[in-house]
Amino acid sequence: MSTPDFLQLPDLASRALAGSVMYANDELFAQRENLVSAEPAAHDVSDFGHKGKVYDGWETRRRREPGHDYAIVRLGVPGVVRGVVIDTSWFTGNYPPFASIDGVCVEGYPTAAQLQEAEWVPILDRVPLLGDTANSFPVASDKRWTHVRLNIFPDGGVARLRIHGEPRPDPAFLTGTIDLAALENGGDVVDCSNRFYSSPRNILGLGRARHMGEGWENARRRDDGNDHVVVRLAGEGMIDHVEIDTSYFVGNAPGWARLTGILDESTLADDSAWVTLVPRAELLPDCRHRFRVDADRPMRYVRLDVYPDGGIARLRVHGRLV
Question: CA of 188: how far to CAs of 31, 180, 221, 275, 297, in Å?
Fold first, then answer.
């Protein structure tokens, strides 16, 4: 089976984007917060606690009455959901046989109690699940959601919940100078020459990288070319300054980098149309580099070229939406 296209989109529910599991009606065996952990579920066959086998996921008790269990997740960034993954890794005899997902769009910061009374809308109808499997399902909806509710029938364990989609942050907060490239503001990676070790989307994540694995690292090049990543900004914007951060990349940072920009999507493939924002500059290992940009026109895309290859922890493109 081919990999669904939606898996290339950001996980809007991930803890890496500040997603949170606000409520679960039951979490006797394993806590609900594990659902949105950014890392894959781990498993230790010898790890037992007072309540039984310890699982890296959310697990409810065996139901002895009618009904079903559910968990409410606040998305780290609101957005349009294109597909979901209900991952039952390591749950073999105790996974739920069916699940569904509902969504709601509520501005502000509603409590779990207030969300219980919200008008939830089905996003994914009841579907069958397999155990110890990353169950993937496309979603056909163009609506914007702020919260999702995972329903499992009747009970059981789910390791991870991935909500893949397109970020749609509140435009009221996209004022002044912001990071136009940030995932949380609606930026995203649209092209990358090499993603051998880790995803280029990491460079647009929240906060500073905590280690090398939270950046973008490509393979070592053995030719005369160089690696690059293209980022679609949150919108058309005037760029003031950028940051190219090589933190934690000590022996594998790029030797040099260059940043260019373009406004029209139709000219992305035309190398001559790209405008230089940061001329080719030497980079240091394990260092945050900041560069002023003197651009006389708005940009919608930026391209970061690294020479000849190497790892980047973060790319920040600070500017103002026009």
Answer: 31, 10, 25, 20, 21
